[in-house]
Amino acid sequence: MKKAGLLIAIVLIVTSTIHAQTDSPAIKKWGAEVNLLWPIFPGNIYKGQVTFETYRKKDFAGDAYIGFHIRPFEFREDEGDFANYALTFGYRQFFWKGLHAEVYQAFGPGYNRNNVIDGKNYSSWDYELGLLAGYRWEFIKKEKRDKLRISPYISSQHGFYYLAAQTNPHPIRNFDGEAPIYVGTLNFGVKF
Description:
single chain, alpha+beta, 8-stranded antiparallel β-barrel
């Protein structure tokens, strides 16, 4: 009889704890976002990623992410037909509200067909690094956002990417070597 009473007490405690947890708003740790700008400008680049909030202390929070970067073949006057595909990963540190800095990395194959200098085809494994800063605007106020299943947002970032390593570089007309390039993003995302 004592065992049955103890079992009932444990079930009641666990049930009340679960009920209390479901009454409070769920913290949205996961997210997904796509870059709305790159398909239009510079064009023909598609980027998406999944984010995970690793920690939060008020506005000070961190997101780790993994995603993809797809640039189908296009003709470049100084190179020939060019394409690249990459697995992207990085970390985004939030400082105050939506203000953040991000470290970006991408690794994947790059292709050059019908090179304009020598007519050859090239393939290479490329590694790219980036450093960005930006701001994320939430569409819904925090009080309401916590009660919804998904929460949409827009973020914009500015910074620089640098092609840090390439296993098989292809010749490019009027090219003096790799240099950091300016990058801007406009991401649409949802937290869930």
